[in-house]
Design a protein that fits this description.
Mean pLDDT: 95
CATH superfamily of the largest domain: NAD(P)-binding Rossmann-like Domain
Radius of gyration: 19 Å
Structural class: alpha/beta
Distance between the termini: 40 Å
Shape: globular
């Protein structure tokens, strides 16, 4: 399998960073953007000023506003916000050629259906071989060429190896897995948990509380991954634990910065005001709560975040509730 051209759907910060990586890897890249100002900015100045300012894009990266222009690409990277994945892939469906792989690069659980992005892909583009790219990676760092490593999950190992080789760049290292469910669950739930860590930071609860939230949050993530048919080993890798540590440890994370604002006393509306980029944890939290109830999985931290975002509780009440839970043995 040989890939020479890649289409990237979605020119937010992460989509633009992945287009940069694909260009460094030697692919001719066509980045699709919904926003006319993004198309104009990249064409005129080689910079996505709206979502990734200050970073000049590789010469291999071109930009378009039309999904139809991606019809001839050998490989598609789908990077719209998770809650828009279905509508975006449905719009692309008339232009997709059977057999062209789609690498899902957005992290979330679809509200309403409670489906993972691989399920959404199977329903909208049934002739597309699926892969998942997920791991600890801030877009601005990746786009600047700073070292990062991610999980690339694909059920077809031969295709996965070809994609891994294709998307590998000098400072961007994919590791292969075959467990798509585990890769997706880690990426989706860590965003919700990062809001909790940001909240603890905003309240000044200290590093001990921060470490406890990451550790017990990882236990929640693992329980859900296994309940959905994923492997605990996958969740313990880059796409789960690795991504959780990064997202919960820096205000560069949109999700942690949202929690930080809430912990400092802002309302959800105030914390989200003026933000152009999506905090996927905010969007996925209601779906995570519903999925936990449906699957019978104990996820107290995630459920507390969902309740807070829905206006059903307050930060002090969340802290009191978590600290007053019954004592138990430490098991995943």
């Amino acid at each position: 399998m040989e890939f020479r051209t890649a289409g990237v759907i979605g020119a937010g910060a992460w989509g633009t960073a992945l287009a940069q990586v694909a260009g460094w890897a030697g692919l001719d890249v066509l980045l699709q953007a919904r926003e006319p100002e993004v198309v104009e900015s990249i064409r005129a100045r080689r910079v996505n000023e709206a979502f990734l300012p200050g970073i000049t894009l590789d010469d291999h990266v071109a930009v378009t506003a039309e999904l139809a222009d991606l019809a001839g690409c050998d490989l598609i990277l789908a990077v719209p916000p998770a809650q828009h994945m279905r509508s975006t892939l449905a719009a692309f469906a008339p232009h997709h050629r059977a057999g062209v792989p789609v690498v899902l690069c957005s992290k979330g659980i679809e509200r309403g259906s409670l489906k993972l992005m691989t399920d959404v892909l199977a329903e909208t583009l049934p002739a597309a071989p699926a892969a998942v790219l997920s791991g600890p990676s801030f877009a601005a760092e990746v786009a600047r060429g700073l070292p990062s490593a991610v999980t690339l999950a694909c059920a077809d190992e031969a295709l996965g190896e070809a994609l891994m080789e294709t998307l590998s760049a000098p400072a961007f290292r994919p590791y292969l897995a075959t467990d798509l469910v585990g890769a997706e669950v880690g990426g989706a739930i860590k965003n919700v948990l990062a809001i909790a860590c940001g909240m603890a930071e905003g309240r000044g609860l200290g590093r001990s509380a921060h470490a406890a939230l990451i550790t017990r949050g990882f236990a929640e993530m693992t329980r859900m991954g296994v309940a959905l048919g994923g492997q605990a080993e996958t969740v313990a890798g880059l796409c789960g634990l690795g991504d959780l540590v990064l997202t919960c440890s820096s205000p560069q994370s949109r999700n942690m910065s949202l929690g930080l604002a809430l912990g400092q006393g802002q309302t959800v509306e105030q914390a989200l005001a003026g933000k152009r980029s999506v905090a996927e944890g905010y969007e996925s939290a209601p779906a995570v709560r519903e999925l936990a109830a449906k699957m019978g999985v104990d996820m107290p931290i995630s459920l507390a975040v969902a309740a807070l975002l829905a206006g059903e509780t307050t930060v002090p009440e969340v802290i009191d509730d978590l600290l007053s839970r019954p004592l138990k043995a430490e098991r995943h």
